DNA sequence: GACATCACG
DNA sequence: GACGTACGTGATGTCC
């Protein structure tokens, strides 16, 4: 096809892809030989994503990836400092450059470069040719130098933000249309490329001048007319430098090319070329995904353990392919006895349970799967029902034939599952342990692949089985959805036909085994063995006990509150409709925004990214403060609505029918920092800050004759900050038992403690928290509702008075940049893969990196306390029920209260010892009462 | 399923 | 000089 009208040329800026891929990803290496491969991996993923999305009416007819070639270009002949401040290419990236060319060719996309020219010049030349031929062009890049080409059918596409940039987009960026972009750049210069420009003039000023005078040449001719003396002088004196800058930024549209547009026609990738390349790179997931897309079999990539010093000579084990047909369905006692013997032989087994649902406190055990080696797995169906899908949707309630009796199977397995000499491996073992516990089997000792991954990879990705299998085994597990169906017609696992259940369930055990085999030896290499052994694994039985204990919740209290809330809400709703002059859904932010800012024309309507007005509490509070009644009522209504739906209503549904208690579930690997997360229900966010909300805690009660006990760390994060950042002033204040926020205020604002006002203390408190969060002037200003400059002043003074903070922040950032993770005092690693990204993502990562060691160390401390707690209170009539980040809740017989407080407090205050000696002592406050509101 | 909102530490 | 910001979570309701 000859390129012309109706054609659409895509030009991809290859170097931009590479650098983006390199900086966005952790330093991956090819397993077999350690070759750095991260950028190639990211590059291929981006190409694949691009190919997948480049369909439809907008699809390109022609496409090329353009690369830079050689470091010396004609621009260096003009100006020897051009790009002189460019940093050396990172050592890990250099060997990957040729591989990205090969990757492009493997995808069967034209790959073009030209010695002595930058990619931008080739792109310019092709874009102009295509435009003159009457075609459309999309330049896939976010390089602002290319913006001068936009217009007349040429657009840019920022692939990361998925945003098209047309002439108006360029105007937005540069303040001028594309044809004047070089003029603006010539004046503003570019520090990245070391284009000098005119000193003191940035894009804003440059655009102003160009728009006033028309173009650069006129501006320079008539420079005497510029009103501002400084600018006038600069432009007159720097004329040569500005003209040189223009030549440097002006793209060459006449690059001598040895190919034509017609050579760039889109071609289908050839599986026989692409897949072998991906396999050679050892990209497991991508190889499989693309093979699937192309409808061919993925080549097998042999699994090789990562090379280690001293490993030479270790033969790589042959990778065993996944094969569901090889799994055994255990239906006879003799067969099960065979498995038990095999497990005893091996000393370790991967275990997984299948159940009728997700609530471990309610569901029934349906079957058990076991694995004793890669590819060697079985499923033991126990209470599967006669298959009856089809005519009879619900099947029969009769047990299917050929299953070992539940009791008999458990009796055979129990000695193995409880044998201290046999290791049981699971994925999220807390779930299975709780199921087994309800059947009288106490599984121990254990390993958990989810927690192994968490100890090594926190911050990099999730730790669910699907994620881990795809990422580390290159294998997508059988999805559960087709087996169970969805919606109304969904069935429980006991109604899944046994042969299908066997493939699914045994595969889970197989995957768990393989992950364990891979992860376990990696722990020590990542130096997180102690983290795993002391902070992750021992928590499993402790949390299982707490969750099974549950906390008693008084349904009547909640029910009465729900009714009261409903009444108040109805009243408020009527008032709101009255004020609005129409009825609308108060719970719809969209409708509320339209009422407030369109109908009532109130000031301050700001639209978010979806185009809807923002109606968050901060916005409504501002409006209410101006005297508007409607937003004030909505705020009240929202508070009640939240309390009712999330707490007083929903909590009732979580009361277990058998125990009369609420049993939350903690996610050990949920938060990257080491904190726990609580779900179904979340008992870590029960209201406390508002008086009305706090009353919900009255529904959490102790059994008759017992009390609830709450012990919480006082200011644990600030104490850890004082230790880590070595802040002598703050340490002293803690040592003397002072009010830490007042002490901070005194230090910062030179106010004696006895003259402290609540207002000054409030500001100091906000700054203290800000520091923990990786402070920014903007954030503090918003929090305190003060001008940004003032907030910045506070921060500057804080840094002055507590110089250790600066050092801590700088060192933490440098560490994160170098290693890709930060550490807590106890060695927990939290990865920060985006720390080397560009733009706001890096700012996010930076603040998270500052916060993680502090929040994470506090999380480690309370984990250590929890692990030691059962032994400390053994023999006492007390149970640990809940954890809320810095607080532990116990239920205790009244007589034993003081004894439990004493022992639990000692454990908590001494939790850091002996692993870490803190310069600041930890103190614990205790409270008790008939309910949680009283105890807190 | 994404988004906005809001509850907690 | 611009980016667009406080850190970490989970549950709910609306809307597409």
Q: Roughly how many Å apart are the termini?
A: 76 Å
Instruction: Report the portion of residues in β strands.
Output: 5-15%
CATH superfamily of one domain: Ribonuclease H-like superfamily/Ribonuclease H
Helix content: 40-55%
CATH class of one domain: Alpha Beta
Structure description:
- The protein is an alpha/beta fold.
- Among the domains are: 8-171 and 252-264, 5'-nuclease (Rossmann fold), CATH 3.40.50; 324-549, Nucleotidyltransferase, domain 5 (2-Layer Sandwich); 552-662, Taq DNA Polymerase, Chain T, domain 4 (Up-down Bundle), CATH 1.20.1060.10; 716-851, DNA polymerase, domain 1 (Orthogonal Bundle).
- Helix content is 47%, strand content 11%.
- It contains 38 helices and 23 strands.
- Helix 4 (97-106) packs antiparallel against helix 12 (271-281), helix 24 (555-580) packs antiparallel against helix 27 (629-653) and helix 34 (788-801) packs across helix 35.
- It is globular, with a radius of gyration of 33 Å.
- Mean pLDDT is 90; it is low at 305-317.
- The protein binds a DNA duplex (9 and 16 nucleotides) through helix 25, helix 27, strand 16, helix 32 and helix 33.
